[in-house]
Amino acid sequence: MKKIIHLIAATRPNFMKIAPLFHALSQERWALPRIIHTGQHYDYDMSDTFFSDLNLPKPHFNLRIGSGTHAEQTGKVMIAYERLVVKEKPDLVVVVGDVNSTLAVALVVAKLGIKSAHLEAGLRSFDRRMPEEINRIVTDSLADLLWTPSPDGDKNLISEGIHREKIKRVGNIMIDSLEMMSGRIKSDDACVKLGLNSGRFGLITLHRPANADNIDMLSTFSESLMYIAEKIPIIFPVHPRTKKNLISFNLYKRLGNAPGVHLLRPLSYIPFMNLVFNCKFVITDSGGLQEETTYLNIPCLTLRPNTERPITITKGTNSLCQITEINNKVDEILKGKIKIGKIPKLWDGLTAVRVVKSIRDFLAV
Ligand code: UD1
User: Fold this and answer.
1) Catalytic residue among 37, 41, 118, 207
2) What are the tens digits of pLDDT across the range 149-186?
3) What is the spatial distance between Cα 261 and Cα 302, in angstroms, rounded to a whole number?
4) pTM of the entire structure?
């Protein structure tokens, strides 16, 4: 009998985390991987395009829970997934990252006595104002297996009293996706279609509530982008949350009409990564981009007071940046003052292989 393994995906960055694992498990005769999409992200641009870019089949189950408050989202996933999991009886449930669906599923299976594993465990910003930090702490306290990307992850888990045997350092799964798709990323024409020259534009993303829901932050941010765009073109694929707010704060049109500023719809994985590969610098509040830029040795300014990925700062090309510092920091990058980084250990495209080995050991197959 094959072992049924549920891979839980919910939001845009989750798809890149389950893809390498789905492909690796599909090669194993003993494994039956099943993709469960909770439906937290549902727009074509935020979900479907990632499945085709990452060569994933349609989700085996879609819970279609959609948007809502934290409690609504978490509660809806719990109710819908509980119904499914008692019927499907998986041997292992894999949750990834730190979104509301990750926490919801971890909670459901812990109470049903079903085994779970957390991929990207141990990351901590030590800032509980971020909903993701609460999701990480609770998920890690419930999971049976904790797969960490870097030594700080192991250290955080041990200091929270988690048993060492549960912790396996496997590396960074996002780098597997990047390596798996690098041929298609390099030959993609996103950069060319936008009329951009390699190394001659800045790439922007912004979606955290602390930035994107705040009118003062968004106004200052827009002013900065217009300042930078006078010197170098700016490409900004806008997350739906941010777009809604830019429009309601009357900033969207002005920013979109500014010379050198290109506001785009959210992009799928391959064209977006083509822009990352070719840009001069990134300004972001995303977690994954801090890691991808470190791997690619591209300067990254992270618009947050802290990060749960400190290795991207100590080893990589990432720097934390306040909203009022953007202009000066970009000016420095344009003058050639660039942080040179190193790639952290085990960020090598082989994380899925290590995870499969860990699952085999855990399930004793
Ligand atoms: C969620 C995650 C965040 C992750 C991010 C990646 C939580 C608490 N937050 O944030 O950790 O970094 O995904 O993008 O789990 N919307 C759409 N279409 C969609 C999805 C969302 O229009 O397909 C809009 C809706 O107005 C929704 C809002 O975006 O209310 C926010 O979506 P939500 O999933 O709640 O949070 P994100 O900000 O995307």
Assistant:
1) 207
2) 999 999 999 999 999 999 999 999 999 999 999 999 99
3) 19
4) 0.96
Which residue type, as a one-letter code, is found at position 115? K
Q: Which two tokens stand for residue 12?
A: 């845009």
The phi, psi pair for 29, rounded to 5°, reads -70, -25
> Using a 6 Å CB cutoff, which residues line ligand 1?
11-13, 40-43, 46, 67, 98-100, 131-132, 207, 240-241, 244
Structural tokens at position 113? 């006595």
Q: Whole-angstrom Cα distance, residue 80 to residue 72? A: 12
The alpha carbon of 357 is separated from its chain's Cα centroid by a whole number of angstroms, namely 23
CB atoms within 10 A of CB 173: 27
Res. 364 pLDDT band, cuts 50 70 90: very high
Q: What angle do CA 166, 168, 169 make, to 5 degrees?
A: 150
**Pairwise CA distance, residues 123 & 102, whole Å:** 14
